[in-house]
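Work through what follows:
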Amino acid sequence: MSYVRNAWYVAGWSQDLAAEKPFAITVLGERIVIWRTAAGNLHALEDRCVHRLAPLSLGRCEGERLRCMYHGLLFDPDGKVAEIPGQELIPARAQVRRYPVADRHSWLWVWMGDPALADQGLIPAAVGLDHPDYILGHGQLDYAAEARLINDNLLDFSHLTFVHAESFGAGPQFAATPGRITPIERGIRYERWTENSMGSSSRRSEVPMDSFMSYDFVIPGILLMTGGVFPLGTAKACDYGQPDYSKAVSGVTFTSQAVTPMEGKTARYFFSWGPHRNHGDEAQRDLLMGIAAKAFAEDKTMIEAQQRVIDDTPNPQVMPTAHDRGVTLFNRLVEKLAREEQREQSEAA
């Protein structure tokens, strides 16, 4: 499966990276070590010493540098070897790849493509755990499945009716009618109004209301979703477009989700979710996270089973349905950008 390389991938939670404690992760099949210095600076290198290929993630931080703790080679943040114990001459080829890395929205982001193109303006506008307007819980899951299968799941919400009937309490409308899909820069936007409804388990209402949900799904696999419950008639009043969230009566929440391809057919799924401070508190956050834990476990069971069927099927083919517009648009975008990257690499070579 194709993935875009000139993009920022989530490598971990910022709060989990202690100073001078190297962290290892594999992204797109590449072993990476990330560390934060005592001064607070972030660095990321290929997690493989040039000498005997020991993992640098087992190394020791020395100022801005990282020392391999097998035979002591010392690496600068740009990946060049600065010191080889017992040897004055340092070969020109004694260096490893450096990865651009950033700390934004409570996530550690790593750029997997051409370092010269690493524009931090392309980091998706997620909502961090420290956002003043939201009370967020968070977590992550490791999947024995391709990242693209998780992306496809997040791009087609018709599965909510069936996979999440018990957790989210999603009604039949998700499978009965497609949401509105709009192409946006580097992704798609999904919007859905549910009129005259009592809501779902996460946005329950005691009287009929209009419920709205919307999310952007952007390269490389980042979902940014919000929604809320509004007085009956709001959907028609705003012509089924984006509502004014200040007029919501309840249920305003935000969720940020990220899918990171690791190695082989494995992926890591990061998520946060919680209410706006005007619509909930820590107890509401904990309730939502309990619902999320059940729902995301349901997804994991289905997607990992799907991966096993794909692996056991000679020449597996899918048959798109009316709900696959978002999946199709996003995957075509991924394939287009991946082709462009490959062409540029070939021309450069």
Remarks:
- The longest helix spans residues 282-312.
